[in-house]
Amino acid sequence: MQNRYVADVGDFGKFGLLRALMGITDPDHGPCLSLGVVWYRPSKEEGPSGDGSKRGYLEPSKQPLYEACDPMLFGRLKEISHTNRDLREIEDSDILGHEQASFYNVAIDVPERHWSREKREARRSEWFKGALERVGDKEIVFLDPDNGLAPKSVPIRLKGATKYAYMQEIARLRAIKTKPVIVIYHHLGRSYGGQRADHPSQMHLWATKLRDDLNLAEEPEVLWYRRGTARAYFVLLDSGHDRSNVIRHRLQRFRSGLWFEHEHFTPLPS
Hints:
Blueprint: H1 9-22, E1 35-39, H2 63-67, H3 71-82, H4 87-92, E2 101-104, H5 117-135, E3 140-144, E4 148-149, E5 164-165, H6 167-174, E6 181-187, E7 191-192, E8 195-196, H7 199-213, E9 221-225, E10 231-236, H8 242-255, H9 258-261, E11 265-266
Parallel strand pairs: 1-2, 1-3, 3-6, 4-5
Antiparallel strand pairs: 6-10, 7-8, 9-10, 9-11
């Protein structure tokens, strides 16, 4: 996650989903759950100059289509987009609640060319250790890398690893005593494992890989967000856990509401 993306149309879907899972937007259906957010923020922002410019959803002609889904969220993001596009603006706002959310906003070191493999991996491991210490007591933890889940072609020791979340990091998070529900952002591209694949196929393949690599009892829930660029959100649940049952119920309500009716999110083909 980088400051340039703050308050774009991707953020609207991202925070809309998290607010629904926490129970902020529907407080009559269960307790408000706490949230920990891990920003995968590189020490140096990178990318094309046009990145983060997808803000057409704030235009008056498009406002009704978006604002109806979550009026409070729309208003806050509109304010931030016009003032200071910085992650701290999200953290200091009430978008994710004043007391319910904690944020890990420590930059990931971009490896220097002279660093050994051991040093690169150790620095990354220390960074994630800090994330666990910051958000490990929360009921939901959201991982927000620029590009999502890491492909085999980008080992964790490479410079480009700052843009990805890795299976070993997710496994460390699942191992903590609080057993949070884990939500992972993933940017959908044109391929999976080096082979061209459409978006539904990519999501099914990643869900299966998460289940198998992490020894999950069930495949993650998958949500397909199609505004701006196509993205997926994977929600890792534990069968029979009361907290997971609350999340399942909230996902059902989310899928039957305006977010899907207005086609911001799209049902995933079976």
